[in-house]
C-alpha cells in the first residue's frame, strides 16, 4: 500500500510490473476521500504512451527506481479502458474490481488533478475472476451471456511516430603540419675583371700624370646579395561546422492482431460472412 505522503512521488514515476518490466509512466493517482488512501493509478501504455490503463495500488510499493505493482505488464495493459477525468463512476469501479478479482467499497477521486467529484461504489464481490485475467462469470465482456446478441470485434492498429536520438558528434580540430617549400631567388654578386686599354690621345694625360716609376696599390670593394628568409603568419580561410537534415524512407514491420467472428453451430443462416 502506498503511504499518503508518497502520492506526489508516485505521480509521474515509472511503473514496473511484478517481473520488473516497464509498464509506463504514472499519470494520476485515485484516492479514497475519506482517509486519503491511494487505491488506483492510471499508467500510460501502448505505443508512445497513447493509452492509459488502471492498476490497483493495494500491493504496490514505491522505490528509488519507480512504482512496482503486483501484476504482469500485459495484464495491466488489457484492463478495462476508463476515461481519466478526475473521478471513477460506479460502473468504472465495478469493471476494474471484477477484472482484477478484487472486492471493496468506497468512493475514489483523482489525486493527480487537485480534486474531483466523489463517486460512490457499493459493495461488490467477484470471486470468479482471478488475477491472471481469466473470466469465469458472465458480464465481463460486451459479448457475454448477460448482454445482447452482438459481439464486438477488435483489432490492433499501429501507431508509428519518430523520436530524435543522438547518433554521434562532430568537432573541428586544428593542428600544425611542417612541410618544406623550395623557392628560387635571384641573387647578384660582384666579381673583379681586369681590363686593359691602350694609350691614346684621349687618356695620355691620365697615364703620364704620375711619376715615371713607382709602387702603387688600388683596392676595389666587392659586394654580393645573400638570401634572407623571414616567416609571417597570415589567415588564409575560415572553416566552420554546419548541419543539414536529410529525409529518407524507412519501412516498419510489426505484427498486429485482430479478432475474427465466425458462426459455430448447425443453424442455417443466410447472407452471413466471416469477418
Automatic annotation (TrEMBL):
**Superkingdom of the organism of origin:** Bacteria
Q: Where is the composition biased (Polar residues)?
A: 140-165
Q: Which organism is it from?
A: Mycetocola manganoxydans
Q: Where is this region: Disordered?
A: 105-165, 202-221, 240-275
Q: Name one Pfam family in it.
A: DUF2382
Q: Which Gene3D superfamilies match?
A: Photosynthetic Reaction Center, subunit H, domain 2
Report any one BP term from Gene Ontology.
photosynthesis, light reaction
**In this protein, which residues make up the domain named PRC-barrel?**
4-69
Which InterPro entries does the record associate with it? Answer: Bac_photo_RC_H_C, DUF2382, PRC-brl_dom, PRC_barrel-like_sf, Stress_Response_Assoc
> Which residue intervals are annotated with compositional bias (Basic and acidic residues) in the record?
120-131
Matching entries from PANTHER family are given as:
STRESS RESPONSE PROTEIN YSNF
Which residues does the UniProt record annotate as the domain DUF2382? 151-262
Q: Name one GO cellular component term.
A: plasma membrane light-harvesting complex
Q: What is this protein called?
A: DUF2382 domain-containing protein
